[in-house]
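Page 47, continued from p. 46.
Same chain as before, 93 aa.
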Amino acid sequence: MKNQVTTDYKQAERFAEITKRAIITGNIIRAKKCLILAEKLFETGNQETRNAISNVYVFSVSSFMELKNCSISNLFPKALKTEYIKPINTTGV
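Result:
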C-alpha cells in the first residue's frame, strides 16, 4: 500500500496536517475536535504515542499557529498546552 502510515510519528505528522488544514479553512470546530482527540491520544497512549504527539503534533501545530498569529491558549486543551509550554520553561525564556 503506497499511502500506508506505519509509525506513530508519521501518523502524528499527518494528523497535524489535518488540524492545520482545518485552521486554514476556518473550520475551528474541526480543529478543536482534532486537538481534543490528540489530547486523548496523549493521555491514554503508550510512551511512543505520547512522544509523537508531544514532539511532532504539538510542535507542528503550535509553530503553525504562531506563524499565523492564532491564539494558542484558546484552542489547545490543557495537557497539550502544558506540553507546548514545557520547552519554553526549560530554555529559560
